[in-house]
Amino acid sequence: MLLENDFYVPLSKSIAMEVLTDVALIAPCIPGVTITETSNNKLYKGEATVRLGPVKLVFSGTGEIIEINNEKNEVFVKAGGSDKKGRGGAEATVFFKLSEVEDAGLDGVSTQVSVKTNLNLNGAIAQYGRASGLIESVAIELTKEFAQNLEKVLTMEDGNTLNANEISGLKLLMKVGVKKLRLGGNKSKNETSTF
Predict the structure, then answer these.
(1) pTM here?
(2) Containing domain of residue 35, as a range?
(3) pLDDT digits (tens, 9 = 90+) for 5-30
(4) N or C, which end of the chain is more exposed by having fewer CB within 10 Å?
(5) Axis-axis angle for helices 169-182, 132-155 (nearest 10)
(6) Could you read off the pLDDT of 108-162 as tens digits, one per residue?
(7) CATH number of the domain to which 78 belongs
(8) Where would I find the H helices in the chain?
(9) CB of 44 within 8 A of CB of 28?
(10) Domain count, the chain
């Protein structure tokens, strides 16, 4: 399934590219993700924890930066992992495109980050893929949380650290449900988050 999200960072395009390709810096911003091993600054091993109501999924896997194209302001990443209890796995290819924009509600110049993710689920967890609207809504919420966490990291004083919480599916579902009620059940495909 294809997921598309956008968010903004209050940085120039070149600095945003440096920040977003610094996995050690941004990993704590990704809800539920922990990096356990790094190889050549492009291949990463880690875990992602997702709680869907009473079900807790812990994925163990890898992520690899396949290409960083500074001229086109693009990044291509592949990731995949398996649930530790053998309930299935997930594979994703992620494409980031950075575009500088003038004052998106921020002082001066900022950068829009467009994210396209091709997500494939397998095994018992593939049943969640049948509710693609739900997964799309959860992806929007995760992108918002990532953007908010990234803003905190960019503005925090030296010595402070971000507390990386596991992804709470129940919390995300509540947010998604409230949003759907406000929108009258309509799905917004081009929704963006701004911080």
Answers:
(1) 0.73
(2) 2-193
(3) 999 888 889 999 999 999 888 888 88
(4) N
(5) 110
(6) 788 999 999 998 888 888 776 665 666 677 677 778 888 888 888 877 655 444 4
(7) 3.30.530.20
(8) 13-20, 23-26, 132-155, 169-182
(9) no
(10) 1
